Amino acid sequence: MAYLSDIEIAQSAQMKPITEIAKVAGVGEEYLEQYGKYKAKVDYSLLKECPRKNGKLILVTAITPTPAGEGKTTTTIGLADGMRRIGKNCVVALREPSLGPVFGIKGGAAGGGYAQVVPMEDINLHFTGDFHAIGAANNLLAAMLDNHIYQGNRLNIDPRRIVWKRCVDMNDRQLRFVTDGLGGRVNGVPREDGYDITVASEIMAVFCLASSITDLKERLSRIVVAYTYDEKPVTAGDLNAVGAMAALLKDALKPNLVQTLEGTPAFVHGGPFANIAHGCNSVIATKMAMKLGDYAVTEAGFGADLGAEKFLDIKCRMADLKPDAVVVVATVRALKMHGGVAKTDLGNENLEALSAGIPNLLRHVSNMKNVYGLPCVVAVNRFPTDTDAEIDLVIERCRALGVNVVLSTVWADGGAGGMALAEEVVKLCEAPNSFQFSYDLDGTIEEKIETVVKRIYGGSGVFVAPAAKKEIDKLTSLGFDHLPICMAKTQYSFSDDATKLGAPEGFTVTVRNVKVSAGAGFIVALTGDIMTMPGLPKVPAAERIDVDENGKITGLF
Fold first, then answer.
1. Main-chain phi, psi angles of 55, to 5 degrees
2. Are 22 and 289 in contact (CB under 8 A)?
3. Contact 240, 141 (CB under 8 A)
4. Rounded to 5°, angle at Cα 58 from 53 and 64
5. How high is the pLDDT of residue 2?
6. pLDDT surpassing 80 at residue 176
7. Where does 151-235 have alpha helices with state H?
8. Where does the pLDDT of residue 1 fall: very low under 50, low under 70, confident under 90, or very high at 90 and above?
9. Nearest alpha-carbon partner for 127 in 43, 36, 45
10. What angle do CA 288, 289, 293 make, to 5 degrees?
11. pLDDT over 80 (residue 68)
12. Element spanning 426, H or E
């Protein structure tokens, strides 16, 4: 049987004008700024002026990712469509895709099959220009910093202690480490430099955590870009860069309204990676979805040890959000990979490998239920090769934790395949909820890191490298020790070693460095060999993408 590709399904969809979607969502014309027929931005003043009370908040997260795929974004979209099908007023809030994965290995982030947000090509490419605005603001700050040093260095900045990098929204390992300012005095001050991918920029984190233009400007002003010769931090506010940066970001800060294939209103806004940043869409978009819907469904990147942990410990803490239910997405195929099965053998029943891989799912579920105190359901994306015995084993093991398992077929069936999950989620939203954070802010930086490693990852402890220890001492002396922690870690394991699949125990996480993101409001702990600028694979997805003379794009997953 031949299946249509995601892009073929998206291109065959009959989209409704965005003005109709806005009416469904309850967005008045005075708040709508159209970007063509099928995209629009919604003015953030709606949050203050809309009289509706906030709806329920549902977080969709997943097991530790594998090459077999889990379908977290697809499930998020299918769940929202399923909620609509059972008569619930639901709005979905997602992150914007980065061009890095689109042209690299992972593909886009607009869902898949018959659970997608559209226009898919626009969302996966330039969309409404938000990422370009974020990159421009980031690079303006870098230019003003280097210009300040060139023009006399009134702030006494030590060029060896510049911590602000330029950025580009592309996987480009060649730019990780560069030397610039070469060619004589008129061409700048020679120094070692580097690039981050745009989604790893602190501007992205600031953008996604800001609650208003005023809050955005206050956060921008606190960004630490360098240190002086006498070890004092220098901020974007010190460089008088904040006003111009905010001017570049003012329109981008308005959430983007699009639609699912079934016409469910969807906000797609902001896109930090969850392995090197906090991995959630913007606070403004999430709050707008809650304001307009009786139920708001959102997702957090990668596995629950990364995206969900940061959603709960960072985003919810800062934005005063309290989730009502959590969905943990899994596939039998991925769990068998965690149990040691090769990707080529996943189509065969293997209860032994499945049993060995299920502890990965159970640890994530236990964290949501027992650490964070949230009602939880497991959504299993069913594949045709999954046997009844395999499904029954997953159900049995989850039931022992007091958590239900619901089969999802949203990839093939759209919202109809998410109705059973929607019914369960509605029940969970009325269940007892004792939400709490995994750590308090009054511990030391090292104590907070160790708490995440032990309580969430299941590790035995932390090794802090000398360079990281020195930086922790400095940040503590500067008063940054009260901030939450944003762990930068491989997405492929609970540990900092991507080869440790399943639910490893007794491991130590190595923290090789830490840095403060004072504007975002957290401390980043860099573990293992994690990098903030990815590279392209041997055969990048870009090689398969093309466009014909009529402008029709092919190969975009």
1. -85, 180
2. no
3. no
4. 160
5. 55
6. yes
7. 202-209, 213-222
8. very low
9. 36
10. 120
11. no
12. helix 419-429
Q: Give which of 116, 100, 101 is closest to 6, Cα–Cα.
A: 116
Q: How far is CA 384 from the centre of its chain?
A: 29
pLDDT value, residue 220: 98
- H helices of 86-198, in order, are 99-103, 120-124, 130-150
Cα–Cα dist 487/531, whole Å: 12
Q: In one letter, which amino acid is 494?
A: F
378, two tokens: 């497991």
What pLDDT is attached to residue 385?
A: 87
pTM, 2 dp:
0.95
| Residues marked as catalytic | 72, 74, 95, 106, 274, 302, 383, 411
Contact assessment for residue 235 and residue 224, using Cβ atoms and an 8 Å cutoff: yes
Residues 532-547: tens digit of each pLDDT: 898 998 999 889 889 9
How many other C-beta atoms can be found within 10 angstroms of the C-beta atom of residue 132?
A: 15
What's the gap between Cα 415 and its chain centre?
A: 23
Is 106's pLDDT higher than 80?
no
**SS3 at position 289:** helix
Q: Position 55: which residue type?
A: G
**Lookup: tokens for 494:** 């609970």
Q: What pLDDT was estimated at residue 107?
A: 61
Please classify residue 537 by burial: count the beta carbons closer than 10 Å to its beta carbon, then call 0-12 exposed, 13-18 middle and 19+ buried.
exposed
- Exposed e or buried b per residue across 38-53, where buried means at least 16 C-beta atoms within 10 angstroms of its C-beta: bbbbbbbebbeebeee
Percent of the chain with pLDDT over 90: 81
pLDDT in tens, 109-143: 788 889 999 999 899 999 999 999 999 999 999 99
Neighbours of 247 (CB within 10 A): 12
Are 97 and 108 in contact, with CB atoms under 8 Å apart? Answer: yes
**How far, in Å, CA of 269 to CA of 286, rounded?**
9
Q: 185-195: per-residue pLDDT in tens?
A: 899 889 999 99
Q: What is the pLDDT of residue 272?
A: 85
Half-sphere exposure for 121 (CA within 13 Å, toward CB) = 17
Count of H-run helices and E-run strands, the chain = 20, 25
Work out the angle at residue 374's Cα, subtended by the Cα atoms of residues 368 and 375, and round it to the nearest 5 degrees. 105
